Amino acid sequence: MSAYYVMGLDIGSATAKAVLLDESGYSLAFAVRPTRGRLVQSAEEVKQEILAHTGVSEEAVKAIITTGYGRDIVQNKTKSLTEITCHARGAYATMPNIRFVIDIGGQDSKAILLEPDGQVGRFEMNDKCAAGTGRFLEVMARTLGIHLDEMGDMAIHSEKYSKISSTCTVFAESEVISLLAQGEEIPAVVSGLCRAIAERVYGLASRVGITPPIMMTGGVAKNKGVVNWLSRILNQEMIIPPEPQIIGALGAGIMGLEMIKKSNEKMNIITQNT
Amino acid sequence: MSSNIKSVLEPFEKVKDDLYFFARQAKQNGEKVAGFLCTYSPQELFHAGGYFPVRVIGKEGGTPLADQWLQQYACSFAKGVLNLGLTGDFSFLDLVVFSHTCDTMQNLAEVWRRRVEGMPIIVVSTPNLNGGDIALTYLKRELTRVKEEVEKISGNTITDANLLESIRIYDMHRNNMRKLYEIRRNNPSLLSGTDMFTVVLSSMLMKKEEHNKLLEVLITELQKVPSQKEDKPRILVGGSVCQAQGFIQSIEMSGAIVSDDDLCMGSRSYVIPPIPQGDPIEMLAQMYLSRIPCPAFYKPGYDPAGPYIEKIKSGNVNGVIFLQTKFCDPYGFNYPYLRKRLEQEGIPSLLLEVEQNQPVPEAFRTRVEAFVETLIK
Question: Among B30, B119, B298, B376, fewest CB within 10 Å belongs to which?
Answer without folding.
Answer: B30
